[in-house]
Amino acid sequence: MDTVKHAVLPVAGFGTRMLPLSKSIPKELLPLGAKPVIHHVIQEAIAAGIEHLILVGHAQKSAIEDYLDINAELDQQLRGKGKADLADQINFIPEHVSVSSVRQGKALGLGHAVLQARAIVGNKPFAVLLPDVVMSPFEENLATDNLKVMIGRYEQVQRSQILVEPVEQKDIHKYGIASPLNADFAVNTHQAIEVQGFVEKPSSDDAPSNLAIVGRYIFNAKIFEYLETTKPGAGGEIQLTDAIDALIKTQGVEVLPMSGVSFDAGDMRSYFKAFEVFSGHHLSSMDN
Ligand code: G1P
After folding, report:
1. CA of 173 to the centre of ligand 1 (A)
2. pLDDT in tens, 198-255
3. Domain of residue 164, residue span
4. Which of 75, 132, 154, 284 has the highest count of CB atoms within 10 angstroms of its CB?
5. Residue 1 counted as domain residue
6. What CATH number is associated with residue 226?
7. Number of domains in the chain
């Protein structure tokens, strides 16, 4: 059976929605409570059983690779001072998990970014986690549950998995939107929804529903073939959503509504909300 052990994290974007905060600090390294955004996302991946992390980065964002690297000197110093807990937090990637990185030299879109991981992923199934999206810190189980459930489903049915959640009408234009076959589907259940296609960033008037792609996906290597032939779409970029739309028509995919709450940490307004929630959560754990 094909198990899912690889995860691709596209981190090449300039984070223009987070400027000037993201001018010299990658948006993925901005704080969310006591940890940078990407730290939460990687912990989610590892908790779901991922063993190979593949960053698709950019020359100006090598600080992310440094953050994930082992800092042996600091580790030794902290342990020498009896601060093993802190040392464990800064070197939080377990030994059985590897980190590789590839570069996306040209900003040609999310689909193009995922395609850059092909040489490392090979023929194996893999997860994609968009590091802008962070799951709620409140219910530890729920936060990792979505990816775990998706991987479990993939391993059972060997079909690509796409996580979705309903969004407000005014936010539809920011997302990949599903076109469900039936109007009556249940959300917050992990019950797969029958979907006939996806459209990237439609206007709310043209949108087939308000079910948005959350930023967690499981694919088999077939997606690379679709990505290779995907033409630039919304915003003139090679969109992952367009490749999924093509995949759905030939192979079918499973579309799962997410459990819990997600936060978009890639947009100033929602980042502030996320910051409040995550730091509040951290503060209350310090008080206990
Ligand atoms: C990307 C995807 C979109 C998805 C969204 C989730 O858009 O293209 O389909 O709904 O992430 O956050 P971006 O936020 O990179 O514009």
Report:
1. 10
2. 999 999 999 999 999 999 999 999 999 999 999 999 999 999 999 999 999 888 899 9
3. 6-287
4. 132
5. no
6. 3.90.550.10
7. 1
